[in-house]
Structure formats: structure tokens, C-alpha cells
């Protein structure tokens, strides 16, 4: 059959993966990663007053020429003026979605890096492929939308530096920023447009109240209604609270609510909250006060129950607009309401009661975090936190990693609170128990801060073992951030503490981390010395897992020094030891090293056998970053045998993984391919 007698046609945007081939021999692995386009804008809610001028300016912003560079608008105004709601309404007013995605980023209590990592995850990038440095992460973030126009809403920005990393590179993109500050630097640097979110005028304030309480009721007391709008100072949060109270108290006259507010004092908005607060039952009032003492950003119902120790109703506080329930089922205070609640707590709760709420919060998180750490990293791992009692459904129906990730901001906040209140044992135990989260999710800034606080707290109570453990382990996060000097200082502090403690496993762990530090800075000879010390110490305690892992690291360091005979023997032993303790991932990593040894010694068939076996094990386990290493080693093997087709095929597959899942090695692999 001639070539001209065959034709193929493909149409449609959702065709998926298509393979055209005549003859295929050997195994074929296909990595499919469906494009993810995030749509994160908050739901548009009723009773949004039509801010005509603001909407008109936003419409012009959102519908401008799609070929123009990224545009930035700053929505600024007083706390409580409705900036977040306005940004959501403006973003949602566009009739067609942005092709590159629509992101909502709440920066309250979050670092830029962590928020940017969340954005990258929303595009489908896996955690293990998210780079550590902020510049690399920013580059990856901008590549996710692949030059397509996207919309980003940045909520609660406090300084201009928070904005720059989130700027998309696709023409026609828009960034909406909410802030209590005008962020004037963005005007000069980015040509940002400032949209003032003013308090509502009398007409719009009345319209918002009418939408909640009904126009007939307000028309019957027109003068009192105007006065109520004035007392609410045009702030939507206050107007909604007033409207909700009128709905709750169907018999209450508007004039009576006005009189109650005026009787409370000069600050009319706070007075309004006091009027609502005074109408709560004793249990609900106590709940309101104690919730303000929680050392967290937001909270779940179970924490509220355990920490406050009161049978009040969260639903009731939500109903009267004193508490906000978020889309994820968690709760938080508006900043103005929180200030009022804290004032009531100071007046209505003793110091002992207030501290009790904080301590119970810390204990709530400590129990669950310690259980998660033990579940994820195994009971045999070196740790000093006492084993917690089992709990029914400790993670609210989530997997441990998912729960830890959802509570991340609160967990760091409780570490800080424990140290501030002088509960040093709770502080270091929380810090140690966060190891699983930080190893798995690589929240490096959190890891370093938590470890530093925990180490100081352990030092305060004379627990030298824990201080050594936390300082040495902190060195890994510091190395990932390329802070070599600070990492070295932590290890220099940790080693004498571990030696003085007499804890053999701890000393072995510190020596292991010293070895990894030396490996990282290009000192394989020093690393070998440290690894040998670590293995000797682990052997004293018959810690087979520790011996297995460090043996793998030792073999790789010997390989780096071109000590091939020693490396071969060590890596063979590491494979056996890792399999004996049930860790196929580490055995496969050792296999990559052993295959490389064979390659360097000219044993082509042996190298191919070991590398292919390691590749298959890593693919089965889903360890994509190590899959890339195995394929690159196979590419090097093909280059050694002069098989250019195979070399390019292996590199192309490695590059495909990196491109599809947002890995940090894309440019290097492209260069190696000659692209």
C-alpha cells in the first residue's frame, strides 16, 4: 500500500493523547496530565449594592484589548468597606472566563511563597516538583497559564512586594488587589489603577438594608432608617449586621435599634455589634468571647467545641452576622468584629479563662498533629514527643496530609502562641510533630520558624536532645533555601548537644544530617566520613532503617568520588537493606547509583538491567522526580553506546514529565536535548 493511500484526520479540542505509529516494539509508557484551569472566584452572593461608578471602571478594565500587557487595579478603602466582596463581584461580572484561569489568593496570615505554591498546585503541579526558591517558583507559576490571559484576585495585601510574584505574563491578564493601603508604589511601577471602595452613600446604604430587611419596613420609619445608615458609617459589614438584627427581631422598630446603638457610646459601629451581642444567650455570648481568644486564623467546629468549653452555637453567631462561615465549612471573624469580640473577652473573661482557651487550642492541635506525624512517618522514627492517645476521626474525615495542609497556618500560629505563653514543652512537641508536614509539603519558611521556636523552647526547659534534633533537622530546610552558613551553624550547635545527651540514635541522626550537608556543598569525602560515623552509631542501636538509608547515601558519596569498587559494594548492600525494611523507593534510588557505577566501569548490559528495574519500581510508586533521574541515567547510557535515538527518547520522556508536572529541570533538559 502506498503512502498516498493512507490519510488521518483529527479534530476537536478534547481529542486527548493521539499516537500515530506503524510498528511499535518494547514497552510504551504514556504520561497523561489533563490541563487544569483553576476557577477559584468566590460565589457571588445576594444583596450586593450596585456601585455604578466602580463597576463601570472595572468593566472597562476587564474588557480592555486582550493584547495589552497585564493590568493591575488596587481596590482600597477602610476596613469593613466591602473591598473583598467588591473584588469578587467585579471579577465575577465578566461574561466569559479567562482562558488561563481565575485565581483567588487570600494573603491574610500567609507568606507569598506558600500562597504562590498553592496557585501552582491549582494548575495540577505535584508537590514534589515545586521548586524551593521564590524566583524559580515565580517562573513556574507564570508558565502554568502558558501565556494565556488570566485573572488573579489578591485579597488583604499589606505591601507592594506581595504583588509582583503573582503577576501573570499572558497578555490581557488582570490582577485585582484589595488593601487598606493605596500601595502607591504599584502606580509608579506597574501603572496600577486605584479604585476607591468608599463607604456606601445614604442611597446605597438604604438599598442594602432594604435588600435584607425589606423596603416596606424601612419606608415606615424613613427618618430612623436614614439615621441607622449614618450610624453604620456606610460600612457593608455594619449594615448587614443591622439588617440581620431587624430580620431576627421582626417586632423591633428601626428607631429602637437606633436608640440602642446611640446608648452604647461614641463608636457607633462597635456599638452596633454590642447591641447584637447583648441579645445573645449567655452560652452564645461566652462562645463569642472565647472564640476571639483562639490563636488561629480560622477554625473548624470541633476546635471551637473543645477549646471554648461552652455549648454555644456557631450557627447562631453566623445568623446574626457576628461570624462568617467560609466556603470550606470553616469559620472566621471579620477584622472589625474580631476587635469587638476581643474587647468583650477582656471585659468578660478572667485571665485564667482566656489562657485556658489558648492552652486547649494548643492541646487540640498537638494531639492530632502528633498522631498524623506517627501515622505518616511510622512509629519507629526517632521522636521525643510522647505517643498520644488514639482519637476517633482525629482529622475530620481527611487524610492526615490533607488535614495538616489545611491547618498549616493555624499549626504555626499555635507553635508561636505556646512559646509566647511560656508553655515550652507544648511548643517543642508541636514543632517536632510538624516534621511530616514539612517533609511532605516543603513549607520551608514555616519549617525554619517552627524549628527555631521549638529549639529555643527545648533549651528553656533544658531538653538538649530535642534542641539538637530540631536544630539539625532545620539544616535541611536551610540548605533547600541555599542558606549554607546558617545551616552549618545549626549543625555546629546540634552536634555537641547530641554528644552530651548520650542518645545514640540522636547522635547517629545528627551525623547523617552532617553528611547530607557536606554532600550538598560538594564535599563527598567529608560526607563519607559523616555517613560512616552515622552507620556506626545506628548499628549500636540495631536501627536497621537508619543503617539502610545512610548506606545508600554513603554509596552515592563514594560514587561522587569515583571510588567505584567501594560504591558498588555499598550500593548493593543498600539495596538489600532497604528492601529488608520494606522501602522500595530508597532501594530504587540506590539502584540508580549502582547502574551508574556499572556504566562508568563499561558494564553496559548490567547497567541497563539495573537502571530499567529501578525505573519500573519508581514508576509503579509514582515517584516522578526519581523517574526523571532514572531516565536521564538511561540517556547517558545510550550516549555511551552511541545510540542517539535512544538517548533523545529517554531525555524527551524525562523532559515530558518535567513539563507536564511543572518540574524545575525543564531548561536544563531542553539544553541537554539541544533544543
UniProtKB/TrEMBL annotation:
PANTHER family: HTH-TYPE TRANSCRIPTIONAL REGULATOR RV0890C-RELATED (PTHR47691:SF3), REGULATOR-RELATED (PTHR47691). Gene3D superfamilies: P-loop containing nucleotide triphosphate hydrolases, Tetratricopeptide repeat domain. InterPro entries: P-loop_NTPase, TPR-like_helical_dom_sf, TPR_rpt. It comes from the Bacteria. It comes from Kutzneria chonburiensis. The lineage of its organism: Bacteria, Bacillati, Actinomycetota, Actinomycetes, Pseudonocardiales. Pfam families: TPR_8. This is Tetratricopeptide repeat protein.
